[in-house]
Write a structure and sequence with these properties.
There is one protein chain. The protein has about 325 residues and is an alpha/beta fold. The protein is built from 9 helices and 13 strands. Strand 5 (about 70), helix 2 and strand 6 (about 90-95) form a beta-alpha-beta unit. The longest helix has 17 residues, at about 130-145.
Length: about 325
């Protein structure tokens, strides 16, 4: 009998699901059997895992019998409908927003708050990808000097919206270079050669759902509701990798060199900071890697105790799929 765990990937053919399956294989996660699940229209599709072809099954309430780990990498609606059933049989690790703000659901970035993983009651949430990068970077600074205020502008790649957005950007570029009017379906405006300050629905306070999500997720991960966070999210015509411009105000003064030292010793962080030689984080180089890259670390000259910095990391890999797998790894290691 094979040793290991029976693992389900829900949304197996999505961008996150495909990357998650690849990471399970790369990191030799002890999978006894992999089950690929998806919406009815995905039934009959297939994925590759450890040299085998795995057919996607239509998800049902009964799909989770015997499943030890269920990784939800599909639409939020699938998570809302099926995470409760998955959690009755094993642990459901959800990359969607569906359960992030539920009081009894731990919201986890393993390098930051792994001690919370064991408090789960069958469901563990993985944060918004930009909040993952925020938490990784801010946590060690917060522990050292306390952070009072954060202003963040997140420049998010189109892969955050899934395959349809990646395909739409490619098609729009092709159309424009051939002097054709681009089709606009996924976003409210053309994304090719453009920047859209619109991520999710606008709320009554003029912020978008994603902007509020980044702020609330970060505060929950860092366990500090008093932290003031103002987020602006814009979609940019980049395929993979988010970039964040962050300005923080700390309770205790820290100079940029001290921040670099703190981050150089922080898990999951790679400091790239030599701007005179054009060395700083870029999404194009962060794509496909496991690190969160931080650079342009400097004094924020507009305020006391202010630090400004720039971040780039792979939103699909590090911001979602790898974070979910790392959560499961902590569960089987402790």
């Amino acid at each position: 009998m094979l040793s290991g765990y029976k693992v389900a990937v829900i949304g197996a053919t999505s961008i996150i699901g495909t990357e998650l399956t690849k990471i399970l294989e790369e990191r030799c996660f002890p999978v006894k059997e992999l089950v690929a699940l998806g919406a009815k229209e995905e039934q009959g599709d297939s994925i590759e895992f450890n040299g085998d072809t795995v057919s996607v099954q239509a998800i049902q309430k009964e799909s989770f019998k015997g499943i030890d780990f269920s990784f939800f990498a599909g639409d939020e609606s699938l998570s809302k409908d099926f995470v409760p059933f998955a959690s009755r049989h094993g642990v459901a690790i959800d990359t969607s927003p569906a359960f992030r703000m539920k009081k009894d659901v731990p919201l986890i970035v393993p390098e930051v708050n792994s001690e919370k993983i064991r408090t789960h009651k069958g469901i563990i949430a993985s944060p918004h990808s930009s909040a993952v990068f925020m938490a990784l970077t801010l946590s060690p600074i917060h522990k050292k000097a306390g952070i009072e205020k954060v202003v963040v502008s997140a420049y998010q790649s189109v892969s955050a919206m899934g395959k349809r957005a990646v395909d739409e950007l490619a098609e729009q570029i092709k159309s424009l270079f051939n002097f054709r009017e681009p089709d606009v379906k996924t976003y409210p405006h053309q994304i090719a050669f453009n920047v859209l300050p619109h991520a999710g629905k606008f709320l009554l306070n003029a912020y978008t759902e994603e902007e509020i999500s980044i702020a609330e997720d970060t505060k929950k991960i860092l366990n500090d509701d008093s932290m003031r966070i103002c987020a602006t999210v814009a979609y940019v015509p980049v395929l993979y990798g988010h970039a964040l411009a962050i300005n923080i105000v700390t309770k205790k003064p820290l100079d940029p060199d001290a921040v670099k030292t703190i981050l150089n010793n922080a898990p999951g962080i790679t400091v790239e900071d030599d701007p005179r030689h054009s060395k700083y984080p870029l999404p194009v180089y962060a794509a496909g890697t496991d690190e969160c890259f931080v650079g342009r670390i400097r004094e924020d000259i507009s305020t006391e105790n202010g630090i400004a910095m720039w971040i780039a990391s792979d939103n699909i890999r590090k911001g979602a799929a790898l974070n979910a797998v790392q959560i499961a790894e902590h569960l089987i290691q402790t």
